[in-house]
Write a structure and sequence with these properties.
The protein is mainly α. 55% of the residues lie in helices and 0% in strands. Helix 2 crosses helix 4 and helix 3 packs antiparallel against helix 4. The longest helix has 33 residues.
């Protein structure tokens, strides 16, 4: 019974705060320490945090940041387009001239913070090797 309580206490104390990790990732900071840079280039994460040495080589954000960016930007742009169209009568070319740059800029502005938040979520949930567990034999390529 005492051993069960000790194991439960260790698991709770080792729990990672998902909201804090995602917020740190959103601001392109290390989800572990909150100080180190998360990206070395626009969408290329660093291999290791320069401050706490957290390993990011196994992160797998893949396509989720792009999908989330499309959903967010799409809602903003379509809502803005519809409201603009209700208030003013603009030609299609004017709408194209207005909304194309806005769409591109919003997509570029949101993709890196979203990717950082996804990496923070993966770190907090101990996904894809962030739990420091031993690799399983079935994961080996040999």
């Amino acid at each position: 019974m005492a051993a069960d309580w000790k194991n439960a206490t260790e698991e709770q104390s080792d729990k990672r705060d998902i909201a804090k990790a995602m917020k740190r990732g959103w601001f392109c900071r290390c989800p572990n320490c909150g100080e180190g840079k998360l990206f070395r280039a626009f969408l290329k994460p660093v291999d290791h945090c320069a401050v706490c040495n957290e390993d990011y080589t196994h992160q797998r954000a893949d396509d989720l940041p792009a999908y989330l960016s499309i959903v967010i930007v799409g809602h903003i742009v379509i809502g803005g387009f519809m409201m603009t169209d209700m208030v003013w009568t603009l030609s299609n070319w004017t709408h194209l001239a207005i909304w194309t740059p806005i769409t591109v800029l919003l997509a570029l502005a949101t993709i890196q913070p979203i990717k950082g938040a996804v990496i923070g979520l993966q770190w907090a949930a101990r996904m894809h090797g962030f739990g420091h567990a031993e690799p399983r034999p079935e994961d080996s390529l040999e």
